[in-house]
Amino acid sequence: MSSSSVFSNSSDTGGQPTGVRLENVSKKFGRLTVFNDVNLKIQDGELFSLVGPSGSGKTTLLRIIAGLEVQDSGHVYIGSNMVDRLGPAKRNIGMVFQDYALYPNKTVIENIMSPLIVKGVKKQEAMSEAEEMAKRLGIGETLDRKPGQISGGQQQRVALARALIKHPDVFLLDEPFSNLDAQLRFSARKFLKEVQREFGITTIYVTHDQSEALSISDRVAVMGNGVIHQVGAPKEIYSSPADEFTATFIGSPPLNVLNMKFSNGTSSPIQLHMDGVAEGEHRVGIRPENISIGSGPNEATITDFEYAGRETIVYLKVGDIELRSIVFDASGLKTGQKVSFDVQKGGVHILD
Ligand SMILES: Nc1ncnc2c1ncn2[C@@H]1O[C@H](COP(=O)(O)OP(=O)(O)OP(=O)(O)O)[C@@H](O)[C@H]1O
Ligand SMILES: [Mg+2]
User: Which of 6, 32, 69, 110 would disulfide-bridge 106, Cβ 3.0–4.6 Å?
Assistant: First the structure.
């Protein structure tokens, strides 16, 4: 291993495939079934996010891929190798968890080079590689300090550097930025994306934050209660949610979901412009940004506002239905006001 390899293709696979495949993976803890027959295929070099609410099984799945947890049945493949029988150290995986656990008594450079020392790389070589990696990640100035003497964002970079220096085939990240403030999280995400692109490492990123998943990923898997509801590119998941769970989990504020009746080309209780919907009752989702207040065939009363910086969420009441809409200039609107509204074509999803 030479120090210059930090800048070339970091993984030592010599072009071997490094995608991850889960085949009918099931896991129980006692009587709790975390998931049943999960199938997933993550492509070589892909930045893939696993997103879902708390307790949906994301960490457990990541730990199974890492070999830290053993599945009850099914198989895990990295590249073309089935790794079921390999321990974590043999899977050539880099991991960064929410609690990234740097060694508090070691300096930054000692932290970064520690995996190489464990691997038996000579100290001088490990040090020069760690230095190069640190420089690349913008923490070259902090090498002689201890983790307690650097900022949270810098600590995060040390954790990333320590995981990357092993030249992993697969990079696993479990909510690595959840401790950071919004500003730092934004730059950390952008930075991760750049590093991931440059190094081309197959990466699985776990988060419960759907906007984070949409913003960084090549593809996203939406997970709820151990079930993979949809896998697709961010745009696809947002614009064509496969089911009600995905539709309501993805998007902020969430989709409005209601029961609607379609007959003779009209709909009630909300009038929508929609062609090709079968007559009868349907479960329908309406994106808040597709409700436009001001004119249209529907009448509502404004019940509340939520100021969100660039936009305002306006709550509308239509009969006993409450709808969220997004407005960019709410200055002319007030609570109790009666307004007309329209639902733009394309903002409506039939969910059943
Ligand atoms: N070692 C364990 N023993 C028993 N139950 C566990 C164990 N680890 C996790 N669980 C349970 O399995 C389910 C899935 O947990 P997991 O940690 O994978 O969820 P998660 O999606 O990562 O949630 P979060 O977003 O809160 O981190 C939860 O109900 C959890 O309580
Ligand atoms: Mg978790």
Answer: 110
Residue to mutate, 60, 62, 63, ligand 1, most ligand atoms under 8 Å from C-beta? 60
For residue range 274-330, what is the model confidence (pLDDT) as tens digits? Answer: 778 889 999 999 999 999 999 999 999 999 999 988 999 999 999 999 999 999 999
Residue nearest to atom 8 of ligand 1 (CA): 60
* Structural domains in the chain plus CATH codes: 3-92+167-249 (3.40.50.300), 256-350 (2.40.50.140)
The tens digit of pLDDT for each residue in 148-176 reads 999 888 898 899 899 989 889 999 999 98
Residue bearing the CA closest to ligand 1, atom 22: 59
Closest ligand 1 atom to the C-alpha of 61? Answer: 18
Give the distance (Å) from ligand 2 centre to CA of residue 222: 14
Residue nearest to atom 25 of ligand 1 (CA): 54
Please state the atom number of ligand 1 nearest to the C-alpha of residue 208: 25
Ligand 1: residues with CB < 6 A are: 29, 32, 34, 52, 54-60, 208
pLDDT tens-digit profile of 9-58? Answer: 434 455 688 999 999 999 999 999 999 999 999 999 999 999 999 999 99
Kindly give the distance from the C-alpha atom of residue 96 to the centroid of ligand 2, in angstroms, as a whole number.
Answer: 12
Report which protein residue has its CA nearest ligand 1's atom 17: 59
The tens digit of pLDDT for each residue in 111-122 reads 999 999 998 999
